[in-house]
């Protein structure tokens, strides 16, 4: 579980860097929250805090849903379009960083027309890409889903073990409470018997008479 969460945090950090380069504000916000929750999960695993692990399991379900949406967005499923400004909150016209810097991509800036602007992506020519940017984004999301599912399974396993140990501890604690009660039953003090009284009780009167005659 620790190794899986560590891999998730590293991959999320890598994804966060490239989303920053592409000004993808929606994924940036999601990655930021995911990194925080993964750190909480790591802390809960190391320090044995089941509540933090439960928070991680709930967030994992939301994170998987978000990555499924990203896959649908870049594959244009259900009327979604990868050319919209949804990922940038309509703040800019930037697209994924992989669109111009993917493997084998050659980026060329074309002269703008009289009605255009230099920062508009319609005047940037990208050719020779080995893998299109949308498929790279889909691969990133698919890896996140796979690792999140593995982490979710391990987190549920850790939570189940902790619950079993808590039940066992309560059972043992009940026995300890019972024994504690038995050990601390109020005992009445017993008066000590002097040696002289004990000796007198053990002396036979006939032997005492014979002793006096002699």
From TrEMBL:
An individual GO BP term: regulation of sodium ion transport
Residue spans crossing the bilayer: 25-46, 53-77, 141-159
Lineage: superkingdom: Eukaryota
One Pfam entry name: NKAIN
Subcellular location(s) per record: Cell membrane
Keyword list, A-Z: Cell membrane, Membrane, Transmembrane, Transmembrane helix
Membrane topology qualifier: Multi-pass membrane protein
Keyword Transmembrane helix: yes
GO cellular component: plasma membrane
Family indicated by similarity: Belongs to the NKAIN family.
PANTHER family from the UniProt entry: SODIUM_POTASSIUM-TRANSPORTING ATPASE SUBUNIT BETA-1-INTERACTING PROTEIN 3, T-CELL LYMPHOMA BREAKPOINT-ASSOCIATED TARGET 1-RELATED
Name listed for the protein in its UniProt record: Sodium/potassium-transporting ATPase subunit beta-1-interacting protein
């Amino acid at each position: 579980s620790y190794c899986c969460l560590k891999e998730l945090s590293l991959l999320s950090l890598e994804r966060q860097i490239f989303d920053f380069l592409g000004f993808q504000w929606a994924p940036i916000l999601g990655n930021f929250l995911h990194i925080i929750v993964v750190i909480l999960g790591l802390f809960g695993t190391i320090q044995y805090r089941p509540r933090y692990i439960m928070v991680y399991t709930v967030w994992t379900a939301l994170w998987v849903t978000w990555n499924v949406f990203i896959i649908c967005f870049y594959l244009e499923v259900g009327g979604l379009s990868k050319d919209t400004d949804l990922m940038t909150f309509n703040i800019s016209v930037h697209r994924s960083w992989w669109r111009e810097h993917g493997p084998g991509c050659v980026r060329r800036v074309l002269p703008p027309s009289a009605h255009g602007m230099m920062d508009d992506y319609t005047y940037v020519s990208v050719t020779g890409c080995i893998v299109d940017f949308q498929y790279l984004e889909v691969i990133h999301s698919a890896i996140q889903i796979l690792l999140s599912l593995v982490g979710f399974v391990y987190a549920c396993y850790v939570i189940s073990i902790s619950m079993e140990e808590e039940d066992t501890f309560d059972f043992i604690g009940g026995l300890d409470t019972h024994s504690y009660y038995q050990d601390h039953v109020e005992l009445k003090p017993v008066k000590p018997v002097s040696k002289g009284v004990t000796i007198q009780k053990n002396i036979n009167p006939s032997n005492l008479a014979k002793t006096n005659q002699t």
